[in-house]
Design goal:
Layout: H1 2-25, E1 35-42, E2 50-56, E3 58-59, E4 69-80, E5 83-87, H2 90-96, H3 101-112, E6 122-127, H4 153-157, H5 159-169, E7 175-180, H6 204-220, E8 227-229, H7 247-264, E9 271-278, H8 282-290, H9 293-296, E10 301-305, H10 317-326, E11 331-336, H11 350-365, E12 368-375, E13 378-379, E14 395-398, E15 403-406, H12 408-417, E16 425-431, E17 436-442, E18 448-454, E19 460-466, E20 469-475, E21 479-484
Parallel strand pairs: 4-19, 5-6, 5-12, 6-7, 7-8, 8-9, 9-10, 10-11, 11-12, 13-14
Antiparallel strand pairs: 1-2, 1-21, 3-20, 4-16, 14-15, 16-17, 17-18, 18-21, 19-20
Helix pairs in contact: 2-5, 3-5, 6-7, 7-8, 8-10, 11-12
């Protein structure tokens, strides 16, 4: 007995030593012998994702108060990065179909090729129509509560071919999720897909079945669906397709119908994202849904948009952090943002791009795992949009000339999407002056990516301090930089 006990203790001790040794030998990030490659886009210059410098590290001392510094601490890590992308809507697909084959190829490479473009890895699409389409439609005949007439023939003309081309250009994989704007008219208390209204209780099951029909139909076309959101902007009565769900209504629909139906139909592995609306009310929605165990078990996390400034206020980034802190097992996904009120004179309006950079840095620093822009392509009118809600996209096509127009927003997004790859971990990052914003991610290949944004009207020279090493960098006025090291 004594011999057995001694042997057991020896085995345990050797195991513990082995574990300790593995911990000691585990590879940590180091700046030793590393170069910093700097890419810059700046207002009033020709710099657009342009390599502008290669720098080196040197030992760092205590920075002075008069110096400006960006601090990166690689040993402190946070959420895992999922990806960045945009939405292929009917509008995007209709415009894409009007481009020449050469311009279609240029466009696809610009977004989805990791080397030639900015390497998008996420894709959002709609479950039947949104406002960004030439008209309203569903996948069934009106009144067909049993969904016997369900088919996606409409999408086969423009949208599905474009999505397939995007997946191909991205290397065969593109994390794709879908959102509904409204149930069919007969399922609502207003008998209208537009202008709000609510889902009638007697159609809860039919509507839940509709999501599963959509997923299976798209997957039959060779388009894997990662997940769905329950309802686009569930608290907004819009002039276009919209449907109101209170927090309690969304909770109960998820708990009693959508979640169980997805599981029953063999789609329990698909992710369900709640809210899918602005940052202003997201904490309340999280409290109601995530605090209910039976509803929460079906929810992968929460999606959010950036339009809370419609009331005249500023972006409420702190609410993202509060959900991240209060529900650390849930994921946060930015599901939609665009610059509203299209004006062709503002194609190159730099502040539109800066808005993207400010939002992305704040959202990531507050716990967001992925970020999805709205329409990836619109025409020279900011459409098509069947209710006149014309907006900007990062890239526009002039269907009269066949030319593509790249806006500052495209380049700002690219400073993140081209360099931060799936599986990266966000690391501790802070700045010593409010005129700069910054975030950092450690990629799985061991390369660190630090993004720095200058909101001021002046060039700024700053210290990049990583652990005990530093480099000195200059960023132009109203510019964004990506530093890879």
């Amino acid at each position: 007995m004594q011999k057995i006990t001694t042997t057991a203790l020896l085995i345990v001790s050797l195991f513990a030593f082995s574990q300790q040794k593995n911990t000691v030998q585990s590879k940590s990030f180091s700046t030793k012998n590393k170069k910093i490659t700097v890419y810059t886009s700046a207002d009033s210059t020709k710099l657009r994702l342009t390599q502008t410098d290669i720098l080196t590290f040197s030992p760092s001392k205590q920075p002075l108060e008069i110096e400006i510094s960006v601090f990166v601490e690689p040993s402190k890590t946070f959420q895992k990065f999922m990806g960045i992308g945009g939405a292929i809507t009917d509008a995007s697909a209709e415009v894409f179909a009007k481009l020449s084959k050469d311009k279609q190829k240029e466009f696809m490479n610009a977004y989805y090729d990791k080397e030639k473009g900015i390497g998008y890895s996420l894709l959002r699409t709609t479950i039947h129509s949104s406002d960004f389409a030439s008209g309203s439609y569903t996948y069934i005949k009106e009144g067909d509560k049993d969904l016997k007439t369900f088919n996606i023939d409409h999408d086969r003309q423009y949208r599905i071919p474009m999505i397939k081309e995007a997946i191909k250009t991205a290397g065969g994989t593109l994390l794709t999720y879908a959102s509904p704007w409204s149930p069919p008219a007969f399922m609502k208390n207003t008998n209208n897909m537009l202008k709000g209204g609510t889902l009638l209780p007697e159609y809860n099951q039919s509507w839940a079945n509709y999501y599963t029909k959509f997923i299976k139909a798209y997957e039959k076309e060779g388009i894997p669906i990662w997940g769905i959101t329950v309802q686009n902007e569930p608290m907004a009565t819009q002039t276009w397709e919209s449907c109101i769900f209170s927090a309690e209504a969304e909770r109960d629909f998820l708990k009693n119908f959508l979640g169980p139906t997805m599981k029953k139909e063999g789609l329990g592995d698909k992710k369900i994202v709640v809210w899918d609306h602005n940052r202003d009310l997201m904490t309340h929605r999280a409290n109601i849904i995530f605090s209910d165990p039976e509803a929460s078990k079906y929810a992968w996390g929460m999606g959010f948009h950036w339009y809370e400034n419609w009331s005249g206020g500023s972006s409420m980034f702190d609410n993202v952090r509060k959900v991240y802190e209060n529900f650390p097992t849930k994921n946060l996904l930015f599901t939609e943002g665009c610059v509203e009120k299209f004006d062709a004179k503002k194609y190159q309006f730099w502040a539109n791009g800066e808005r993207y950079g400010i939002s992305m840095i704040n959202d990531f620093n507050n716990g967001t795992v992925g970020w999805t822009d709205w329409n990836i392509l619109l025409d020279q009118n900011g459409g098509p949009n069947h209710v006149g809600n014309f907006c900007f996209a990062p890239v526009h096509a002039d269907t009269n000339t066949g030319e593509l127009i790249y806006t500052p927003s495209y380049y700002y997004i690219g400073h993140f999407s081209k360099f931060i790859r799936e599986g990266a971990k966000r690391v501790s990052n802070s700045v010593s002056r409010s005129n700069l914003l910054s975030t950092s991610f450690l990629n799985v290949d061991g390369k660190m990516t630090t993004v720095v944004l200058n909101q001021s009207n002046k060039n700024v020279t700053y210290n990049l301090i990583v652990g005990s090493e530093k480099s000195v960098v200059t960023i132009p006025a109203h510019a964004i930089q990506t530093l890879v090291y």
